[in-house]
Write a structure and sequence with these properties.
Layout (H helix, E strand, L loop, with lengths): L1 E5 L7 H15 L3 E5 L3 H7 L5 E3 L4 H11 L4 E4 L2 H9 L1 H4 L2 E6 L9 H13 L2 E4 L2 H4 L9 E2 L17 E5 L8 H11 L7 E5 L5 H10 L6 E5 L4 H7 L2 E4 L8 H8 L4 E4 L15 E3 L4 H12 L2 H18 L2 H16 L4
Parallel strand pairs: 1-2, 1-4, 2-3, 4-5, 5-6, 6-7, 8-9, 8-11, 9-10, 11-12, 12-13
Length: about 350
Amino acid sequence: MRIVHVVTTDTFSGLERYAVDVSGGLAARGHEVLVLGGERAAMRDRLPAEVRWAPGATPRQALTSLRAAGRVDVVHSHITKADFAALAAAPWSRAARFSTRHINHSRGYSGPARLVARGVRRALAAEIAVSEFTAGRLPEGRPDEVLVNGVADAPEPRYPRERTVLVAQRLSAEKQTSVAIAGFARSGVADAGWRLQIAGRGEEQPALQHLATELGVSAHVEFLGWVDDVAGLYARAGLLLAPAPAEPLGLTVLEAAARALPVLAAASGGHLETVGRLPGAELFAPGDAAAVADALRRLTSDDGRRLEYGRRLRQLQRSEFTLDEHVRRLEALYVRAVGPGR
């Protein structure tokens, strides 16, 4: 099949990593794949040689690239702007169109956008949600399919790990990074040599830095900003803290699990469908900094417990959240719409 994935962004984060991984998996299965959008250098550096890339940072760019691609079998869009571009390109692509809902919000905010969004939904071969949590929260109603992401298996972990608690996410209010900082401060684990590393950027960073100072832990909290090699952080860190209470899925949690990195996560949202599937998973009530502090003291004081927990998470990822299985299921959706002979 000739397949196009459209992301209409000029950045490289979780969504773009997903497009890279899935496109590479589809190409490995013999399909001709084109990806539109994402930060040019990052996408070209990470996409395998057999996957083509073209500009698509805006709907106009994506539409131009889709028209240039001509007839294809599948156009798969991943955010609202990409959905609109895919619909506008339908006369040229004449493809089966798919859309993955990676967030829990409506498709379009203004009246005209919501009107177009209804047309987008009706014209799709299938709408896909990344989790049951997301599927149940879409204002337009339940999608056709739920397809939880998978991640590539990682190399064997190396030990010992550093005494760092890692938070890797966008620094926006809904992610509740403040709960991670408050929990770290209350735990007192800095006295045992542990540090809190925060990878990501966003509008909340000044307020979060002020909070770390106010709570007296600024010397033990490191704001890393944008980190290109997040996998390297997973490999070195001692613990991942995922405080977001309404994470649609949590690709970071799966990537950490693939590297046997222990995960402490909010007991809500998509976390319950990933790390929460493991008996005895380390979860805390959303927004509860005291519970975070208790869990940090418990986990950081027991090296053997962290090691065993990380190994069990890695086993969970390899049994239930592999990239190969995700791509296989996605391919099956395409074949159902396009036909087995393509």
